[in-house]
Every structure is written in C-alpha cells, then in structure tokens.
Write a structure and sequence with these properties.
Layout (H helix, E strand, L loop, with lengths): L1 H39 L1 H10 L10 H5 L9 H8 L2 H11 L13 H8 L2 H9 L14 H7 L3 H10 L14 H7 L3 H9 L14 H8 L2 H9 L14 H6 L6 H13 L11 H4 L13 H21 L1 H34 L1 H22 L5 E2 L8 H9 L8 H4 L14 E3 L4 E3 L4 E3 L4 E3 L4 H33 L4 H12 L1 H30 L3 H5 L8 E5 L5 E5 L8 H11 L28 H12 L16
Antiparallel strand pairs: 1-3, 2-3, 4-5, 6-7
C-alpha cells in the first residue's frame, strides 16, 4: 500500500512537473510569437492561426491568441491598435474573440493605445464593439486625456463627437484637458477647448491653474493665450507661488520671467490683482524686491516713464498703425496738389502746357483711387458661428466610414472656423480669412486679396506714372525759370536756385526722388507676380507649402525636390489674361510638366527622409516614367 502511494505521488509529481514545463514552454513560445509578430507584421499571425485551425496540438491557434498576454500584460489587440492595422484588429475581435476591454497591468486598453497613435478608424471599430471611452488607466487618464497628452487632434475630435462630457474628465492629480494642453504647449488643442467652452479657470489638486502648467512648460505663446482668456496670474499654488514666482525659478529659460511679467502687465485683468500684492510685483519688479523709497528723482523718472508708456500705447493702437502711413501719403499728395495749383499751373502752362494738363488730371485721380483703395474689401470669407462651423463638419467626417484626410485639419482656421482652400490665408492684422491672399499693405492699411488685387496693381501703375509726370513737370519748370534768370548756372545752380527760392517745391521734388524708386520696385514686383500667377505670401512662404514641391529623380537616380507652380495657366500671357480678365487664379492650371506620384512627406523633414521613404520615391518615379519638374519662380505678409 505504501509503495502504491509513493508510486502515485511520484506519478502525480511527474505530471505536475511536466505540466509546469509545458506551461513554461508555451509562455516562452507566446513571448517569441509576440516578438515575431511585432517585427514581421500581423498578417503572418493571421496566416499561422488560419493554417492551424482544426489541429488540436498546433500552435498558435485562435484559442491561444484570444487570451494571450506578453510579460507586460499587452494583448495582440493592443499591438495591432498601436500599429494601426485595422484589418487585424477586426479579425482579432470578431473572429478570434480578443476582449476589447482587456487592460494591461497599468490599466490601458487597446482603445487607449489606438488613441495614443491617433488611429481613428480603429478607435471607431473598438468603440462600436463595446470599448469604454471613459475607462481610466492606473494614473486616471482616459482616452480623451491621452489624446491631448499625445497631441492627437483627430482622436481628440472623435471622442468629443461621441461624448461632450469628456471635457470634464480629470486624472488622479485633478488635471483636466486644459491643464494637459497647456503643459504640452498645444495651442491648437487649447483653441479647440476654448471653442467647446472648456473651463479655463479650473485648478488641480496642487492648486495649479492651466497658466501654472504653461509656465512649467516654458511656453510664452500659451501663457499669452491663457491670459487673454482671463486666467488669473496671481493665483497661488499649494506651495504659495504665483506664475511669476514659478517663472523666476526656471534657470533654463532666463527670459521666461521677463516675458511673462510683460504679458501680465499688458493682458491681466486689473480686477484680479489681490489687494495685499505689493506694487512692485504688479508693475513687474523682480520677485522679492522691496519697494524703493520715493524721492524727487524717482518721481521724475516715473513721470518720464508714464509719458513713454502713453506714447507706446498710442503707437500700439491698431487704428494708429492702420492710418499713419495712409495719412502721410495723403499729406504728401495734398502738398503736391498745392504746389501744382500755386506754382506749376502758372509756369507750366507756358513751359509745358500738355504736361501740365496731364498732371492736372492724374494727381486728383491718384488721390481718389488711393482713398477708394483704403476702403476696399479684399474678398474675405465670413467668420462661421460656433456650433455651425467647419469644426462640426470635420468631426462628422472623422466619425464616418471614409478615411479622413488629415491635411483638412491643417487647413482649418482656428480664428474664423472655416476650412481654407490653398490660397486663402488668415490675416492677423485685419482678423479675416482673405481669398487669394497676397499681403497686408501698410501703405493702404488694408489686406490685398482676390477682390482688390487688380485695383491695387492699377493703383501702383497709376501712382508711378503720376509721380513721374509730376517730377518731370517740376524739373522742367524750375529749369526753365532758372535758365531764364541765370542761364550760366547749370544743373547744380538750378538745384540751389530751387532750394533758396522755392523751398516747398524742393520738398516736393525730394519726396519724388525718395518714393519713385520704391514705387518702381513695387510695381515691377507685382507685375512679375501677375505674369507668374503667384502671390506675395506664396513667394515668402514657398518653402513651407508642400504643393509647390515635388520629389523627382535625376538621371543618376537621386531623389530631389523640384519646384512646380500648380497655378500656372500656361505662360505669362495666359497668366496676365487670367488676372485681368477670366479671374480663375485660384484654380489649378494645365500641367505643363508630367505629374509624378508624390511621397507624403512634410517639407520641413524632406531633407532628412529615411532610406525607406527615398526608395519609395524612387519606385514611384521609376513607375511613372521620366518627367521634367518646373523651374523655381522667384513684402510684408499678414
């Protein structure tokens, strides 16, 4: 009996040991399979499981895949969601039966992994199969907060489309969406959160506002944005520090404190200033600096500073900046008209009667045309109201079965909330989206766009010839008068004679000498743009606009960037006819070059393309034949 018991125990122990070894081998095989699939792709795994169907001892089978985890607790669905393989994810959920809510050891689900990479189609698939968009990981982060942390705009908008209440979610530290967007210095997500009326005044468990988080990230742009939204800069954290004190502690960014203090002085709501705050901190003294005793010198300095501040405020006024140069021009034009009426009309009627009549006509018409241009409209798209803008249209398209073109998000204007075409640009000076935007003209105080571009070029031409005629008439008259009185003086004597006897005419003549070269350059420059169907903004920012560049292969097989003008209508004559007559500048012109497949690369990183991308480009070029790229056709923009 005892021998039988010992034999049974030995047999049972052997079986347990064999089972343990078998389990260890299976875990080792599974870990190797995870590594293999991550390196070789998910199609291989699907093929292996399909081939092993119905074979009980084969590995891997669907039963093995369904509950499999790697050492960190990730499932195959996690890795498929992270890699963006939608077909594999559907197969894993629908055919294999991998649970969509199976979490890793840190609580993250496949939906969270898809969110981190912005794979919205996989997110939609997982949500439709029961994935919880409010599930939290070990740090309390939801998919929505993870989308903000990883700057995934499409995932952000998809989750908002599904449930607007995600705006109120917080992690275990009490940080909400605005906190994370501020800390990540993501100005676009902050504008979206402002659009959806998120709470910008919320403080986390450390009593830190979004402004504190923006200071911690060192982003002045985000600080300015939050101050414009009336976030309190004087709010103190749990450690008793306000934003300026927090900025002063940042030794890696010495300009942060100075810049932030200037922004607080300019933008902070005076009603938010605590009564107990020393004046030195309000006006931007260093943290901890004691107020100095007031004396006569300090008082005088403050008065000078006050005058300088008043002058600076006046110069910073938008209306002052807008009308300063136009008023200067109108003053000079009025002076020219006065000179003509008082002096030139009398002398010129005898010395150059025809030129005098021409100037009589051209000067008043130039003034009238200038005034009309200052009141012209560039052709802007109206600002769309919140709730009925392009944002809702984009969100609906993201949450559809069609693949969303991410470039549409880059064309969304976060000021007017329209979806811009390639030639519509937002003018920050005039606060509008201008169609076929050329530039903001400081001379006129208006942006130049589709509706006033022709009149602007005509004004430049008219103004140039008007000033040229006026200059010629002045010179002809003063030479005629000088030679009449002192014929032996010559040119220099004529100039001295004019300055000493007709000072106001000399001033007018000098203004022409200064402005005529500028007008000549301006006019010729814009005529050149017309002949090439380009705008000033496009010439200045051409390196940033990828639709002007194309990857082509040279005879040696090297991939390089070639400039192409998609707006070219077929030559200078066709472009001029289009500008002055047919008015189809915003439409693509006929292709004078053979269109080559383009690799989807950002222009900024095109010079650092990976070998795989370059090979892809070479393959595309090789399969499209040999093509000739266009030549590069080479101002203040808004």
């Amino acid at each position: 009996m005892r021998q039988q018991m010992e034999s049974f125990m030995k047999t049972g122990g052997m079986q347990q040991m064999m089972e343990a070894q078998k389990q260890q081998m299976r875990e080792r095989q599974m870990n190797q399979l995870f590594q293999y699939v991550r390196n070789s792709g998910f199609d291989k795994l699907k093929q292996m499981v399909t081939n092993n169907a119905g074979q009980p001892n084969a590995f891997p089978r669907a039963e093995d895949i369904a509950g499999a985890r790697d050492p960190q607790g990730h499932t195959f669905l996690h890795w498929g969601a992270l890699g963006g393989d939608e077909a594999f994810c559907k197969w894993a959920v629908d055919e294999v039966g991998v649970p969509v809510e199976m979490a890793t050891f840190n609580g993250q689900t496949p939906l969270m992994w898809a969110t981190i990479q912005g794979h919205v189609q996989i997110m939609r698939m997982l949500i439709s199969r029961g994935a919880d968009i409010k599930r939290r990981d070990s740090l309390g982060a939801t998919p929505f907060l993870l989308a903000i942390q990883h700057k995934q705009k499409l995932a952000f908008l998809l989750l908002l489309q599904r449930d607007r209440q995600v705006l109120d979610e917080m992690d275990i530290n009490g940080c909400g969406a605005v906190h994370w967007a501020a800390y990540k210095a993501d100005i676009m997500n902050l504008k979206f959160l402002d659009y959806f009326q998120a709470d910008f005044q919320h403080v986390d468990f450390a009593k830190m506002s979004p402004l504190h988080r923006a200071v911690a990230s060192g982003s002045i742009e985000v600080c300015e944005f939050l101050l414009k939204r009336k976030v309190n800069p004087y709010l103190k954290t749990k450690d008793g520090e306000d934003c300026m004190q927090l900025a002063a502690k940042d030794k890696n960014n010495p300009y942060l404190h100075t810049s932030l203090t200037a922004l607080v002085k300019k933008l902070a709501d005076p009603a938010l200033v605590p009564e107990s705050l020393p004046e030195t901190q309000i006006i931007g003294a260093r943290v901890g600096e004691e107020p100095k005793a007031a004396d006569a010198t300090t008082t005088a300095t403050k008065e000078k500073s006050s005058f300088a501040n008043d002058m600076q405020k006046m110069l910073d006024e938008p209306d002052f900046q807008k009308y300063l140069v136009p008023c200067m021009y109108l003053g000079a034009a009025t002076l020219a008209l006065y000179v003509h009426v008082q002096y030139l009309a009398v002398v010129g009627s005898e010395a150059a009667p025809m030129l005098t009549v021409i100037v009589w006509i051209m000067v008043p018409m130039a003034i009238i045309a200038f005034v009309q241009m200052t009141q012209s409209h560039p052709g802007a798209w109206p600002k769309r109201p919140i709730g009925r803008s392009a944002v809702e249209e984009i969100m609906a398209d993201i949450d559809s079965d069609e693949k969303f073109d991410e470039k549409r998000l880059h064309r969304l204007c976060t000021e007017t909330w329209i979806e811009k075409d390639l030639r519509t640009k937002y003018c920050s000076t005039s606060k509008m989206c201008v169609r076929e935007f050329d530039h903001y003209c400081g001379w006129l105080g208006v942006p130049i766009g589709r509706d006033n571009n022709r009149r602007f070029v005509m004004l430049c031409l008219w103004e140039f010839f008007t000033q040229l005629a006026h200059f010629a008439l002045i010179w002809y008259c003063i030479v005629s008068e000088a030679m009449k009185d002192n014929p032996e003086n010559g040119v220099w004597g004529t100039i001295v004679f004019t300055i000493t006897n007709y000072t106001i005419i000399a001033v007018s003549l000098f203004s022409h000498v200064v402005t005529l070269p500028w007008l000549l350059c301006l006019t010729s420059y814009h005529l050149r743009l017309v002949s090439r169907n380009l705008t000033t903004n496009e010439v200045m920012n051409m390196h940033r606009y990828e639709h002007f560049w194309q990857l082509v292969s040279d005879p040696k097989g090297q991939v390089k960037k070639n400039f192409v003008n998609p707006w070219d209508k077929g030559g200078s004559v066709s472009n001029c006819m289009d500008f002055w007559w047919t008015r189809k500048r915003g439409e693509f012109g006929p292709c004078l070059y053979k269109q080559l497949p383009q690799v989807d690369l950002e222009l900024q990183t095109m010079g650092q393309a990976t070998e795989e991308q370059i090979q892809k480009a070479r393959y595309a070029v090789a399969n499209s034949g040999t093509g000739q790229g266009g030549h590069a056709h080479q101002h203040h923009s808004g």
